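Lab manual, section 2.4: Encoding a predicted structure.

Procedure: take the sequence of the chain (221 residues), apply the prediction step described in section 2.3, and record the output as structure tokens. A sample record is shown.
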Amino acid sequence: MSVVFIKEVEHLKRQILTLSAQAEESLILAVKALLTRDEELAQQVIRGDFDVDQFEVQVEEEALKILALYQPVATDLRFLAAVLKINSDLERIGDLATNIAKRAVKMCNEPALLVPDELGRAAVRARDMVHDSLNAFVNFDAEPAKVVCGEDEEVDQLCRQVRRFVEEQIQKNPARVGCYLEMLLASRNIERIGDHATNIAEDVIYLVEGTIVRHRADGKA
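Recorded output:
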């Protein structure tokens, strides 16, 4: 490929890394706002959602332009296909972080209630999965991506424990059902973030090895 193509691809890499940093930061702040009952921090995440959305559009337009102009093949084509899918997952992670922030705002406006440890642990694990999958992308390394794929069940299990906790608390204190439902929605958002981190990790494996690992019967990457 030409020098111009290489420069275009390097620019696209910088764009996707900027978007990933924005999405990861939104997630970190949203989880902190939820666990510390920091409404201003939650509002900051909500205000930043538009920037993530706009950057996602820019990355998509740039990737499609490169595809149309240069019609790349082999590894270059896999890279652009992976970027388009990772770009979409990052935008969804940003949206889910915003949803967590909205849950945090509603919970901040109510008297404090008991939050299970599993909620914070699920949030931290999902955050780490996002970070590790993006590092795998940056380093063009499938091995840590495979590790991320194996960690999704831990997040799912923690979120199932949160759901059981919410069900028990609603029975004990039905007057607080609204707040506990917000907590449940936050845990579901966290669970979906783990799913999107797994998607990114699977795309990295495809990028590096050319192997599609989604829908594997044995559940292994």
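Check your result against the sample. Residues 217-221 have pLDDT under 50 and may be disordered.
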